[in-house]
Amino acid sequence: MAAPALNSRAGSAGSLGNSPTSTHNSAFNNNKIISCYPDLDFRSGARIEELNRLIQEFSKHDQREYDDQRALEIHTAKDFIFSMLGMVQKLDQKLPVANEYLLLSGGVREGVVDMDLDEIGIYSRGTDFDMAFTLLVPALKLHDRNQPVTLDMRHSALGHSWLSLRLFDEGTITRWRDCCTLAEHLNGATNYFFSPTLVAEWFQEAVALVLAELRRKPQRGTPKVERVERHGTLLSMVLGVGGSRMLYDIVPVVSFKGWPAVAQGWLMENHFWDGKITEEEVISGFYLLPTCSAAGCRDNEWRLSFARSEVQLKKCIAPGLMQAYQACKAVTSRLMEQPGVISPYHLRSLMLWACDRLPASYLAQDDFSAHFLLGLLDDLQHCLVNKTCPNYFIPQCNMLEHLSDETAMQHARVLAIARSDPVEHLRAAIEQVKAANRLTQEMQRRGSSSGLPSPQSESGSADHQQPDDRLAKKLQQLVTENPGKSISVFINPDDVTRPHFRIDDKFF
């Protein structure tokens, strides 16, 4: 399956006169200039300059800047989550002792990972939270290359797999036996299949036990757990710290080193990141997410995820295209009544395909954001009309194959409305993000005026406050100096007070 390409748009930056999303700046008749026109979008008549300005305005309101206080609140919430997970590990020793989590900026509903959105509830920035994170928590960490692993894809759609524990050691099978489904192997032995639903159920129950224990023994300065909800295999938790509300989407996963055979063909192709980052950085590992295909077995089927690779690829994407993607995501998310049909992850995949398809010199143009946004809308509508959206890492996997013709066309018509008037829909998206920011600021003012505890105010003395200040500054420094890099956190359940950060191959 080829990437979704509209061939008339491909080409170098010098061939934009043939683009369906732009026009020439001048009209000629008998070699005489009649008049000069602004650069227009052929489909809607919108001024490209106006679209660029609106995308810039959206980006300004959508970006969050963190001062020292906010950085400290982020650290306090993160430390609470990792401490909680350390207590979960101690309950029955199921989780790896020295675990490695992947913390991603943005929630699952923002397309950070590919999970089914129709099952995970609606959370709105400003109304429900101020900042969102996704945390992948390995239930099994299969990083030993000598560990035999059986990914059984015989019963699954492309991009999905069952995981057999048949070749694992007896200790692992004993620990996880109650989270497995059983089947008879050909040789008569019992085959244990690691169940995503049973693993998620165990994990959510374990977290509930730990939170109940923490409520019985509250400590000053810890975040307030404002909301905990189960959405299928996803656990969503909102923490209140000072004047901030932070949403953590916590997902139990299976973590692997290396690269799956089903995605080997992708490595043989040319990609936009060639020469910018190494192949070793891109293929450092993958995950199994607890979500299944449309016709898959929910109790046994996992979905392959390349979230760690996507973190690496993100730093190779031009800023103008990334801004257009964020604006397009906001526009399409407002339009879709059924979020499970088209998710932001589909749009992210199209952006990666566009990076492969289009010249880097074209994508690097700072004032082409409007063309990028219009192109993403065109690509998304094209995918719906043809019911074809190939997974970036497994191109033969069509992520829209399960859609009915009626559903696909219904959503294509909705997109056509936005495409015919992108200016109006961008303005609506800007007003929405501005309203969310006002709600956030109002919540922060209420938190300050009501005397809600902040991490600094709970320190107790300057002696305790100073290390926290240094840690907040260190966190800011790590984020600033390592844009787009994969940031992992190690935790020792016997000493949750010490941070163990890994940024790519560096440890802190």
From TrEMBL:
Pfam families: Mab-21, Mab-21_C. Residues 1-21, 443-474 are annotated as: Disordered. It comes from the Eukaryota. Residues 339-412 form the Mab-21-like HhH/H2TH-like domain. Residues 447-460 have a biased composition (Low complexity). Residues 175-313 form the Mab-21-like nucleotidyltransferase domain. Gene3D superfamilies: 1.10.1410.40, 3.30.460.90. Belongs to the mab-21 family. This is Protein MB21D2. The gene is mb21d2.
